[in-house]
Every structure is written in C-alpha cells, then in structure tokens.
Amino acid sequence: MIRIILPFIALVFGLWAWNLPAAPGAASSWAVYDQSLLLSGLLSIALMSLAMMLALRPAWLERPLGGLDQIYRSHKWAGILAVVFAAAHWLIEMGDDVIESIFGEAGKLHDPDYSGFIDAMRDVAEDVGEFAIYLLFAMLLITLWRKFPYKYWRYLHRVMPALYLLLAFHAAWLTPLQWWQQPVGMLMAVLLLSGSIASGLSLAGRVGRRRQVRGTVTGVKTPARYVTEVTCDLGPAWRGHRAGQFALVTFNTMEGAHPFTIASADQENGTVTFLIKSLGDFTRDLSHKIRVGQTVKIEGPYGCFDFNRRNRKSHQIWIAGGIGVTPFLAWLEALGTNKTTVPEADLHYCTRNAGQDPMVARLQQLCQDFPGINLQIHDSSKGESLSAEKLSTGGPSTAGEEVWFCGPAGLGRVIQQGLRAAPFRLTRFHKEAFQFR
Ligand SMILES: Cc1cc2nc3c(=O)[nH]c(=O)nc-3n(C[C@H](O)[C@H](O)[C@H](O)COP(=O)(O)OP(=O)(O)OC[C@H]3O[C@@H](n4cnc5c(N)ncnc54)[C@H](O)[C@@H]3O)c2cc1C
User: Fold this and answer.
1) How far does residue 93's CA lie from ligand 1's centre (Å)?
2) Burial class (CB within 10 angstroms; exposed 0-12, middle 13-18, buried 19+) of 59
3) What distance in angstroms lies between residue 258's CA and the mean position of ligand 1's atoms?
4) Domain count, the chain
5) CATH number of the domain that 338 lies in?
C-alpha cells in the first residue's frame, strides 16, 4: 500500500500546491476554506479513480506492487481514504454557514458567472455529488461491518463503478475552470478519463476476461474433514503458472469467483489442483456442491508468492499456517522437478492437530528428498505454537533471513512484530494476503 498510495497522494497534493499561487483571492479565511474544499474533493476523486483502475486487476502492476493480493489491498485502502476525504469535503461544504458566522461574508469568493447551461449543469453536479456521497458513506459502513455476508457485499460492491461515474461527473463540472490549464487539471483529466474507462469496463463485466479459461472438474476428494481437494483440467488454453500463484475460481456463476492458491506445480498439461478449507458459506461442505465433470471457470494465474523471487543470499524461513500450506506444497512439488535449484530453508508448518492433519504426511513425503529443507511441525493440540523467538533459534546468518509467510492474518502479524526484536537481520517478510475485503 505504501508503495503506491503515499506517493500518489504526495503527487496530487504537490500539483495542488503548485497551483496555489495562481488561485484567486488572498490568504484570507475564505481562501483557506475554498482551497480546503477543493483539496479534499481532489484527493477523494483522485483516490477513487486510482481504486477504479486497480480494480481492473492489472497484471503488469503485479511485479512492482508484489502481486494481485497486494494490488487489492491498495485498492481497498485507496477506496477507504477516498471516502475519508469525501467525508472531509462534505463536512467543509456543510460548514459554510459556521465559517460565515465566525468570519463574516467579507472576502467570500463567489462562483464566477457562467452561462445558463453551465450554471444549470453545476447545480445538477452539486446535487448528484451530495446524493452519491451518502451512498458512498453507506457502502463504507457496510464494507467495514465484517458481519455483513461477503456474498451480498460483493453484489453491492458492483455498484461502485456507477457511483464513481456520478462522482466523476460532479468533479468534472465543479473543478475551477482555471485548473484545466494547470498541471493539477491535466492530472485530474487523466484520472477522470482513466477512472471512467475502468468503471465502464467493470460495468460491462470485462475485467480479467483475457485471463479466463474454462475447464472441467476431474477430481473431488476430502483429504480431511474440513478440506476439499479439487482437480481441474483446463486443457491447452491454460498457459501455465508459477508455483505459489493463485487463481479466481468460479464453480457456480451465481456464487461468483473465489480466490484459491494453486496447490500443485505447473504440469504443463493444463491440470491444476486446489486445496480448499471450509472457511465460510460457500466453502462449507464444498464436496457436496461441486461434482466431477462439471464446468469450472478459472481466471489467472495471479500473485508473486513465487520462491524464484527469493533473495538467493538470504537464509530462507518458510512459514505455513493451516490452509496457508497450499503455496508451499506447490513450491515443493515444483522443486521436485528441478532439484538443482533447491534452496536451504526452514519450513515451519503450524497445524491444529498433527495427528489428524493429512498435510503433515504430505509435507514429510515432499521434503524427504530435500535434506536442505528442515521441516518443523508445530502442533497446537500439544501446546506447540510458533513464535518469532523460535525462528531466531535457527542460528544467525550473515546474509540475513528472508521470511515467506502464508496463513492466518493474526499469526502473520504476531510473527512479523516479534521479528523486529530478532537477533538476526531480516531482509524481507513476504506475506500472502488471504483476505481481499
Ligand atoms: C490470494 C488468496 C489465496 C487464497 N487461497 C486459498 C487456498 O488455497 N485455500 C483456501 O481454502 N482458501 C484460500 N483463500 C481464502 C478463500 O478465498 C476464502 O476462504 C473463500 O473465498 C471463502 O468463501 P466462503 O463463501 O466460503 O466464505 P464467506 O463466509 O462468504 O466469507 C468468509 C471470508 O472469505 C473471504 N471471501 C469470501 N468470498 C470471497 C471471494 N469471492 N473473493 C475473495 N474473498 C472472499 C472474505 O474475506 C470473507 O469475509 C485465499 C484467499 C486469497 C485472497
């Protein structure tokens, strides 16, 4: 998020500040009021445009931003901040009377006189903006209210591009005319145009089309009580994937796409396997909802949780929590086909109950050919839990340690925080974000 949102805000703020000397009015209270109104509105629509563009799932941004899961995090934060600035914009607009009662009307900047049509459009734009902003606030509240079911939220969220178009209309008509000849106006034009195109593509259902492949479910197994293993045949249309990547999987059009890590290495024959844990409405009893022979739509591959991107000088610490083991299974499978690149690594697997978890045996089997990979099982049923201190007992490496984590967000946070006090040099902490909302 920091990689894109902060520089973006700095750019927008910088261009607004650049334009200040050309702004009408002296440094009066009313000029400050006006510029605050404009700046909050500008930041809001700019961030909303960014959120719209990121929602297109741009594959070319995956590398610089660290994967689609990270792009979605940036999309989410751009959206949240856009609403925060929209709220500030709305409060400032509503505070007009308060300012007037404090500072009086003297120095108040009046709107330039436009012709009848422009004036009428500006009035419409103001009303549209107010209406859209209330919807936006409602959307944010629903998004932050975790108990609101994801499947309904997804449908509601699809309204966002339409809401964006209303707000873009508001912004385009109410931007001061003088801005359009300045860098800030040019940025605004680019953002409004790109955001509107992105919204159009979203509304037309064209996002990710070129990465979608149809195939058939060829296997459904339940290796453990809460886990379903699904194998799909996508044929030659599937252009392959890197171990650790994920895909958006649609078993049922009404249900829509769910992201799952591809738990198998690329077989070069269009076969992919997913290990799906019962974590909610749709994934509960999944083996009864899907069947061998049915059609499946898969979009991807996405993500940069790819061990080929590791720092080859750093010692590797790989941490899997529960179903977060899926990318590591794919890594180990991929290593099996290319033994020359096997790195030395500590692989920690945290499980609730090792005795009942088939992934333990699977990991042990996959690791047995790689003496450099030191598998450690942490079984909570025996009171064994993984902490940053346990990682640091592995012995310091002069080239530093690189951690790859996939598992529950809470465990990831605790380990990442604990590692700040670790007696070794942490070169990087990669984390696959299993949560989009
Ligand atoms: C990059 C990534 C990789 C993942 N890999 C795996 C994996 O290999 N195995 C596995 O078991 N799980 C994986 N997940 C989690 C999996 O996507 C969710 O558990 C699943 O979508 C839950 O669906 P549900 O309808 O059963 O849950 P619900 O009860 O509807 O929702 C539970 C939570 O799951 C998430 N979720 C639900 N539907 C979606 C959706 N369509 N898109 C995104 N998130 C959703 C939301 O955070 C929601 O709050 C991954 C998630 C991400 C983001």
Assistant:
1) 40
2) middle
3) 6
4) 3
5) 3.40.50.80
